[in-house]
Design a protein that fits this description.
The chain has 448 residues and is an alpha/beta fold. The chain has helices at 16-24, 32-41, 57-68, 95-109, 125-134, 143-151, 168-173, 177-185, 202-211, 245-252, 268-280, 294-306, 316-319, 339-346, 367-377, 392-397, 414-430, 434-447, and strands at residues 47-50, 88-91, 116-119, 138-141, 162-165, 192-197, 216-219, 233-239, 261-265, 285-288, 311-315, 329-332, 356-362, 385-386. It folds into 3 domains: 9-223, Rossmann fold, CATH 3.40.50; 233-397, Rossmann fold; 414-447, no CATH class. The protein contains 18 helices and 14 strands. α2 (32-41) runs parallel beside α3, α3 (57-68) packs across α4 (95-109) and α6 (143-151) packs across α8 (177-185). It is elongated. It starts with 15 loop residues before the first helix and ends with a helix.
Length: 448
Amino acid sequence: MPFNVSKTFAELPLRPETIEALHAHGFIAPFAIQEMVLPIALSDGDVIGQAKTGTGKTLAFGVPVIERVIAPNDPEWVDFEHKGMPQVLIVVPTRELCTQVTKDIEELASNRGIRTLAVYGGRAFEPQIEALQAGIEIVVGTPGRLLDLSRQGQLRLKQVSRLVLDEADEMLDLGFLPDVEKILANTPNRMQTMLFSATMPGDIIALARRFMNQPIHIRTQDSEDEGAVVTRIKQHVLRAHAMDKIEMLARILQAQGRGPTMVFCRTKRTCQKTAEDLMERGFKAAPIHGDLGQSAREKALGDFKAGKSDVLVATDVAARGIDIDGITHVINYQCPEDEKTYVHRIGRTARAGAHGIAVTFVDWDELARWKMINQVLDLGLAEPEETYSSSPHLYEVLDIPAGSTGRLTKSRPVVQQKALVEKRVEKKAESMPKVERTRTRTKKFKES
């Protein structure tokens, strides 16, 4: 089906409540993947949707499953036999994606009384079990926690009629495919299965053939070439020395027009250290990686979304599901492992029709890996220019103000520091009893 930007959600056969919720959250016309998936999904057909992250896949499967749920506020609820049992199951690879998808679903489903629950590890079982016992229509979860709750008998999957696998290729990469197969086998009454993935490795195709019923494979134009890179992203590749990277990064973060920024690292250790170095230099940075507790990860992501921090330093796994509009810069602090990771990283910017800037640091020992990425994607950037934090062309191409240094905060002059200390001592002395105040002033006089 060709994409027609004039088509609106109001023209689709949707419930008035769904259309109202879509409009209330600013969704008027569907994106390409949504327009192609919705007619098939609304007809209860199985779908394989292939599109890179950030193209609107959540609405593509979210709208159809919400339409088919029998909700507490619906007239059919009175005669519904399976009240409170999950009707829809959405399986995702990471905790961050789980919370993001749950939020998107809740925004569209709450006006019909549909109850949605996010189920993932790193959190106590009890609140999730209590919510399931109270009754849930849509469950969004990661494979491990879903299976744990299912084995405990707390998550009943027999009445699930709609099942969605989101980011299936990432679940394969993380080793979740056996768990996904068990979940599929435990949902015997599935009437519809939808699978969404940026790429289609052989194992994912085999999974689809085994568990799906004559699925229709939909591929957006941007995904026909897996190496296609968003044209709205201006890409810079710089050959950088490991000892100078943090200084270069600090100066790039002072570029004109720089807004919320994501910095990607390959390892958890580098991610944590980079975030700490940036904070010490005066930047509002926060790390997000697998070694952090779930509450710390959620706080870091929440602060970034709320604008309390404007630099999010992340590993690739932790960054899955971070779908935030307005990110202006993506910086690859360490060269990505392959072209798919590169495309996924830089795709965090230039969303919703905006433009963005991507900067990749390539160390000397990473040149071979970068050349392979460049060759596959045909970027024409095989020979990154040798760059240091003091290089004039760094300031020029990234629009960094002249004179910018690697720190935002400057130390106070010694005279100001001394005056500040004395002021604090005087203030403390005023709150002392008269005898103690006299002793303090006498001591200060003797020292002078």
